[in-house]
Design brief:
Helix content: 25-40%
Number of strands: 16
InterPro entries: aa-tRNA-synth_II, aa-tRNA-synth_II/BPL/LPL, Anticodon-bd, Anticodon-bd_dom_sf, His-tRNA-ligase, HisRS-like_core, HisRS/HisZ, HisRS_anticodon
Bound molecules: adenosine-5'-triphosphate, magnesium ion
Strand order of the largest sheet: 1-5-6-11-10-9-7-8
Pfam families: HGTP_anticodon (PF03129), tRNA-synt_His (PF13393)
Shape: elongated
Distance between the termini: 54 Å
Main location: cytoplasm
CATH superfamily of the largest domain: Bira Bifunctional Protein, Domain 2
Radius of gyration: 28 Å
CATH class of the largest domain: Alpha Beta
CATH topology of the largest domain: BirA Bifunctional Protein, domain 2
GO biological process, one term: histidyl-tRNA aminoacylation
Largest sheet: 8 strands, mixed
CATH architecture of the largest domain: 2-Layer Sandwich
Number of domains: 2
EC number: 6.1.1.21
Length: about 425
């Protein structure tokens, strides 16, 4: 019979990878609570309209990347392609926006893209959104939080912060008009995608990957020259706060979000370690979004980062926590009596020393094969019960890693001293 494989672009995360995910998730969880952010969990499926209105009709996501289907009541539903729209929907629906809110979320997102390294059809994001604060100190906090994450994960040297302000809606409209005039005169030099965007979403031309288009843009009007006073002042303040906190950045005037309810700050963290999929985190201010989705005029700012790319980055930088052992202790035994004693003693250990990870050998086998499994588990010590140990009321403790072997070769430990012996060993 033919085997069934996972859907293209939707990957299993296998047991040898999950420790890295758990490590990143633990660091992020601590970081978020350290900045006073509360976790929110939204459904994976939302009404399609939410994304049409919340992400925007003329984005790649809505134009060509959504998993949209009708359910049995013929409602059009979509697997969430990102988290901000759902988070804003939930915040409005549950009346969370009467006060300032700092929220974060994590989970799978879905986009129908061409799968490649760092680009899946099911991928995972961590995102944060802050509502109710319009001033740039909030933007700065978001960026400082992400900067700390790179430090905590040991990849700070390999990421760079790109920063821009896209101003108010009016400022952007004026800029858009000027840009379109410039590009229309040179339309035949634009790539096909960009020609199409000249009508639908001209600002997106700025992040075209086409080198000829980028060269053409060198002579184009610059967004910075069109910024309104308030946006200029806020951007200057944001830069001041980042300078004060010692977080370096590059101003990239071509960094944009092409939607009208995004405004002022946009930022991206990029790395040169992941080829074309170099953006690990993107964010910005969206003071118009809550209103766009039917709420009051509440300002917001947020970011989202891709966890697959983070795992790849840690791998590329070789900063993943060392060989991930499944166990601290591996328990082997020979003979029925010995196994009875081993099982009982192991359970007692788990009662009292629950922080230790203990794997009990199951399925029998020779001394040699059991000890092989013990070595493979990555455990630091093996506890060995055989006839001699049962007779003496002891257990043999054997070091499995080279760095311990000088101190502990093999020693017989009386059963009533076992817990204390292990505590001492694992405390040091
Ligand atoms: P890209 O330009 O790489 O397509 P994007 O602008 O579509 O990114 P956002 O919507 O801003 O990305 O999502 C935030 C982050 O989520 C990205 O910076 C990236 O790290 C991650 N991400 C986005 N799409 C994918 C994907 N298909 N697979 C894996 N990670 C992704
Ligand atoms: Mg994309």
């Amino acid at each position: 019979m033919s085997t069934i494989r996972a859907v293209r672009g939707m990957n299993d995360i296998l047991p040898d990878e999950t420790p890295y995910w758990q490590y990143i998730e633990t660091v992020i969880r601590q970081l978020m609570s350290g900045y006073g952010y509360s976790e929110i969990r939204m459904p994976i499926v939302e009404r399609t309209d939410l994304f049409r209105r919340g992400v925007g009709e003329v984005t790649d996501i809505v134009e060509k990347e959504m998993y949209t289907f009708e359910d049995r009541s013929e409602d059009s539903l979509t697997l969430r392609p990102e988290g901000t729209a759902g988070c804003v929907r939930a915040a409005i629906q549950h009346g969370l926006l009467n006060m300032a809110q700092r929220l974060w979320y994590t989970g799978p997102m879905f986009r129908y893209e061409r799968p490649q390294k760092g680009r899946q059809r099911q991928f995972h994001q961590v995102g944060a959104e802050a509502f109710g604060i319009a001033s740039p100190d909030m933007d700065a906090e978001m960026i400082l939080l992400t900067a700390r994450l790179w430090r905590d994960l040991g990849v700070a040297e390999h990421v760079e912060l790109q920063l821009n302000s896209i101003g108010s809606a009016d400022a952007r409209q004026a800029y858009k008009d000027a840009l379109v005039v410039y590009l229309r005169e040179r339309a035949e030099q634009l790539d096909e995608d960009s020609q199409r965007r000249l009508d639908s979403n001209p600002l997106r031309i700025l992040d075209s990957k086409n080198p000829d288009t980028q060269a053409l843009l060198d002579g184009a009007p610059a967004l910075g020259d069109f910024l309104d006073e308030e946006s200029q002042a806020d951007f200057a303040r944001l830069c001041e706060l980042l300078d004060a906190a010692g977080v370096p950045y590059t101003v990239n005037q071509r960094l944009v979000r092409g939607l009208d309810y995004y405004n002022k700050t946009v930022f991206e963290w990029v790395t040169d370690q992941l080829g074309a999929q170099g953006t690990v985190c993107g964010g910005g201010r969206y003071d118009g979004l809550v209103e766009q989705l039917g709420g009051k005029a509440v300002p917001g700012v947020g970011f989202a980062m891709g966890l697959e790319r983070l795992v790849l980055l840690l791998e590329a930088c070789d900063t993943l926590p060392g060989a991930n052992a499944q166990a601290d202790i591996y328990v082997v035994s020979f003979g029925d009596d010995a196994q009875r004693q081993a099982v009982a003693a192991t359970e007692r250990l788990r009662d009292s020393a629950s922080a230790l990870r203990i794997v009990q050998h199951t399925g029998g086998g020779s001394f040699k094969s059991q000890m092989k499994k013990a070595d493979k588990s990555g455990a630091r010590v093996a506890l060995i019960w055989g006839e001699d140990e049962v007779a003496a009321g002891t257990v043999s403790l054997k070091a499995l890693r080279a760095e311990d072997k000088e101190q502990i070769t093999q020693q017989a430990v009386p059963l009533d001293e076992l817990e204390q012996t292990l505590r001492t060993l694992f405390a040091g």
